[in-house]
Every structure is written in C-alpha cells, then in structure tokens.
C-alpha cells in the first residue's frame, strides 16, 4: 500500500509513541524492520504516520520495545484499530487539515483545559458569536456558515463525559464581537455552559496584574493515559501541536498558575447574597448588564 500523503492525528500520535519506544529500547530502524520482515523505510513510514500498522504487528513491536502491558499498551493497540474517520471529514470543503486535526483531538480527549486571552473559547461560543468572528477573515457567506456548522459540531463533546476547564481573560468579555446583543447572549451562554457538571469557567480579571507571560491562547488535551497528552497552540497563520512531555508539563503548570490568579469559577446555582467576594459569575453578569 503506498504511503498516504497526509497522516491523521491518530496516525501521527501512534507513530510518535512507537518512535519514542523504539529509541528507548535502543533499536535501529533496520532492527525494528526485521521484526516485521520489512526494511527501515516501512518503519519510518509507520513512525511518521504515513501508513497504518496491523494490530498483530503492532503487538510484536510493543513487546520487542519493552512496553509493559498496561494502559499505554492497551491504548496504542486500540488506536491501531481505529479508522481515524469521523464527522470532521465532512468539512473538508472548508476546514483546513489542522482544524480537522483539532476536532479529532478533542473527540479523543478525556479532559480539556483551555486558556483564551482575546476570545470566548470555540467550544463555548454561540453560533452568532462564532459567525461574527469567522466573518472577520472570511467573506464568502456559504463558507462562513459551513465554518459555524463545524464549530457547533465540535461542541457536542461537552454533552459527554469529557471534563472541560476554561480560563478566559476579562478582555474577551468586553470586546463586542457582533455587537451588544450578540455579546449579551454569548455571556449568558458562558453561564449556561457552566451549569454542566463537567464544565468549569473562570475569568482572569484586569486587576490580577501582569499578564504578558500568559498572553498566548493554548489548549491542553488529556489523553486516556498521560503519555498521550497534547498541547495545542493557536496562531493566525497556522496551529502547533506539542506532544513532548516537558512542553506539556510546562503548559500544565502555566494553566494552574492562571487558575490560581483567576477569579473563582462560575457557579450558576449560587445566590447573589452568597457572593461575599468577587467571582467569575458576578463579573460576567456585571459586564453583561452594562451592555
């Protein structure tokens, strides 16, 4: 089978973990290839995610690489069985591969932590807010609506068991994307989303101090095992996926520092008189009522 031109997120991640395990075992590509009765090119293509590896052959590699039976072993075996196809493939006409990779990563995550300094996070956006954001860079109305449909489809994961924590800078609450009416509905959506038991929303207020070291948006996507965690960095021209353990730990610590500096999480069930100190809910309501 000829190599595929562009691997899926699942293929890339499986290949990366296999390369890590092979290097840890001190095996060359030729040595690994001999296990499969193949050459180093085949191993290179597997590790780059360009071709799939059958489960029986993956089992042989994992055993030879010294990967112990356990959660990582089982998850890698399960990844080899997946097709990598999902609903995001229906949006190839408008969504770039990196956007579809993000949707696949979200769908495979057990927990998501997101920091947004300028916008409401995509998984918490209303359709009108998303439409206004997308229309800033896309003029074709049909494409705008397809992008909005894609963003709304991504939000379906919040109805499941995935845990979602969002830290949003207060600036994002004040920027009137789409006008006051759209923003009021968007702020109300933040409060409504926080009613879900698996969703936590915190606001980082202006008065919390220096923000320069936290000015970039990022997302941390927890795999079924820690070895499969991924960091996603937003960029106007492209996005970056970091899968190195040191990077992931760095961003995880940054997220917790942000959480510690941010206001207490939104609790929609709390009564106004219970707010002895300022919290995320009271700030969102204050901004909303002033619009």
- Assign the structural class, choosing from mainly alpha, mainly beta, alpha/beta, alpha+beta, or little secondary structure: alpha/beta
Percent of residues in helices comes to 40-55%
Which spans of ≥5 residues are poorly predicted at pLDDT below 50?
none
| Order of secondary-structure elements | HHHHHHEHHEHHEEEEHH
CA-atom Rg in angstroms: 22 Å
Content of β-strand: 5-15%
Mean pLDDT: 89
Q: Based on Cα principal axes, name the global outline.
A: elongated
Short recap of the structure:
The protein is of the alpha/beta class and 291 residues long. The protein has helices at residues 9-25, 29-35, 40-47, 55-64, 71-81, 97-108, 127-135, 141-154, 170-174, 180-193, 245-261, 280-290, and strands spanning 111-116, 163-169, 199-204, 218-222, 230-233, 240-242.
Describe the structure.
With 291 residues, the chain is an alpha/beta fold. Helix content is 46%, strand content 11%. It has twelve helices and six strands. The chain has helices at 9-25, 29-35, 40-47, 55-64, 71-81, 97-108, 127-135, 141-154, 170-174, 180-193, 245-261, 280-290, and strands at 111-116, 163-169, 199-204, 218-222, 230-233, 240-242. It has a six-stranded mixed sheet, with helices on both faces. A hairpin with a 6-residue loop joins strand 5 and strand 6 (240-242). Helix 10 (180-193) runs antiparallel to helix 12 (280-290). The longest helix is centred in the N-terminal third of the chain and has 17 residues, at 9-25. It is elongated and about 70 Å long.
